[in-house]
Amino acid sequence: MSPPLVFAFLLALPPAAQAPAPAPAPAAGECLACHAEPDLAITFGDGSSKSLRIDGDTVAQSVHGGKVTCADCHPQQRDIPHAGRRFASARQLATSMSESCQRCHFSDYRRTLDSAHAAAVRRGDLMAPVCVDCHGGHDMTRPDVPRTRIAGTCAKCHEGVAKTYAASVHGRDAAKNVADVPTCTDCHRTHDIGGPRQKGWKTASPDICGNCHADEERMRKYGLSTNVLKTYVADFHGKTASLRKGTDAADGRAFVALCSDCHGVHDIARVGDSTSKVIQANLATTCRQCHAKASANFSQAWLSHYEPSWERTPAVYAVKVGYSVFIPFIIGGLILQMLLHLWRMAVNR
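RE: above sequence
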């Protein structure tokens, strides 16, 4: 039978012979007729159970309230009454529900596939976080309002790191709602979360620090110098890091001194604090992490993140000024010599 005849035949079929239209999405009120009951629960294959009671006011006040229907996230339950779904555990339910998020948030979902969390899921880690672990379910609100919530969300899994961060210079100011202070997602990103075990992460970390510490407008508010990144990149540590970018070892080691090696990671202290790794009293110990035989005055040969100046380092400043004059003079003289030589050759011809 030719395609046109098949098409005409299908059009001629009575409505009963055609595929039934999907059931209309139930209104929230219809769902709450059952899901407002306090005793409604689901029992999982492992014997545990979970309440299926939903607070209508909580849903209405969430970011999805009035915008997303129950059936948008639960398309398998469009019919009322509907058959229950079976899950081996509460964890399997959470993972299954997170798959619904990609219907609306596909670009964010795609970014999660390259994240450290998704890598953990692929390794079979059932406790690795999925969408609902960070964003919640029916009580979903903006995750960054206030910004202090971000560290609290990460603390559900990374409790030890969160406590360390809370005591750091960044964490203490973040608790005061200082908007410019970095929190977890500023360094590790959000849906495409990265970590130190990912290739290239550690050697690229100076760029992460530079996002804030090279921002003149932001640093001016707190009287901080923006020379830190420029002076780091200009010295032997920074030049080595630039040359070795992306060469992290499989276990995350970078074999080059990075910001975190001297200042710490989640435990960064304010310069001047007794716990700071870069104050004079502690600096030799910090240097010995790489330079095992470093003497007590080893660090004095380094200019830190200060640019040479007549007041602070007159000898180094004099050499810098001398070279800034001497090198152009030599190069200019060589160019002049070559031009005169070419001119003489032309005249002699």
